[in-house]
């Protein structure tokens, strides 16, 4: 039997990408066309074999960061970016060297309670010796591990940011308190100074008053003694 | 907002919304696009090129090129189509380069042939003697990957997009900038060619299915 069905139609039917009328028409033909039946069988077998090839996890290690990097970018994974692409080889090599060195010296960085801790040593920390026998830098990192690591990094950044904000707020408050205390102290000092000034003034004026008083008394006495003998106690009486 | 909440929220955004964010200076929106598309793009390129390292390299190049040219993308809602186009172009350049390199290298062709033969031998015996290999299902899909490399590139790319990316013929035609009818005929002839490769290597469907 001669078959005039095109390969395109056959494929459309196989993948069910046909409009309804086309489909009915083709199915009528298919019912008594052995060529098309065997063709469809061939398509089914071949595509069936393709199904044994499952998806794999990509490990692209691709992370884009702002070109004008801020201090926070330091905490982001050191991975290729658009900027890096231009000088990809050199940079990749140098990063690899840095990572290798860091791996060699057991670099550890942490952040807690507002303090960065960094630890560089040629010896592994005693309590981690057991875990470090299998070198994690040479092991392939799973997608999940990478995601976890990425989340850890973000969490670290988040902690740093919130902590810095918190510390900033506290610091402002502390500065204000300190300023207020300073002003208060200054005021008290001024008052003391003024107070002491008044005291001195008081004492000195009092002294001066006493002196003046004494002088006046003396003068009065003098004046009395020179006048009275003549008027009251005259020798002629 | 907690960072995790932020990431979830961002993941719900459409490609076009993310692109809009990115073009407004939020580089991290592009990372969401990478996370969203890297797996399908990587597997597409891996089947197209047949080599993991090369696939990884091409995916990185594709995303970097997309990153640089995103501002020129006319229809942001068609980001994935555009991304596939970029990847296909890079793959084709790479294939040309590869062809030039191996054109006169009979040794390389011979080595490839031997590799395939040992793979087939392993596949034939593994079913019975090596349960570990069966569990890993490794030989079977290495073989499929090699078989895909045996058919013409323009047919292979259609088969991969159809069978693994699940694209409609109209979508494939759009990515490859060819007519829908051409897409369908390449699909047909590609599958026929693949069938012939399987026959030549004496791979039966049962043999592959045994591994599943
Ligand atoms: Zn027919």
**First-residue to last-residue Cα separation of chain B:** 45 Å
| CATH class annotation of the largest domain in chain B | Mainly Alpha
What average pLDDT do the residues of chain A reach? Answer: 71
Q: What's the N-to-C terminus distance of chain A?
A: 188 Å
**Major sheet of chain B, described briefly?**
none
Unreliable segments of chain A (pLDDT under 50, ≥5 consecutive)?
69-84, 124-138, 230-237
Number of helices of chain B: 12
Strand content of chain A: under 5%
- The value of Rg of chain B in angstroms is 20 Å
* CATH T-level fold name of the largest domain in chain B: Arc Repressor Mutant, subunit A
Helix content of chain A: 55-70%
Largest interface: A-B, 38 and 53 residues
SSE topology string of chain A: HHHHHEEHH
Ions, cofactors, ligands: which are bound?
zinc ion
Helix-strand category of chain A = mainly alpha
CATH architecture of the largest domain in chain B: Orthogonal Bundle
Number of β-strand runs of chain A: 2
Question: Unreliable segments of chain B (pLDDT under 50, ≥5 consecutive)?
Answer: none
Element layout with pairings:
The complex is a heterodimer of chains A (237) and B (212).
Chain A: H1 7-14, H2 20-30, H3 34-50, H4 82-86, H5 88-104, E1 108-112, E2 115-119, H6 129-132, H7 143-231
Antiparallel strand pairs in A: 1-2
Chain B: H1 3-11, H2 15-23, H3 28-49, H4 52-69, H5 79-102, H6 106-129, H7 131-136, H8 138-150, H9 153-163, H10 169-176, H11 180-200, H12 205-211
Zinc ion is lined by residues 3, 5, 29, 33, 35-36 of chain A.
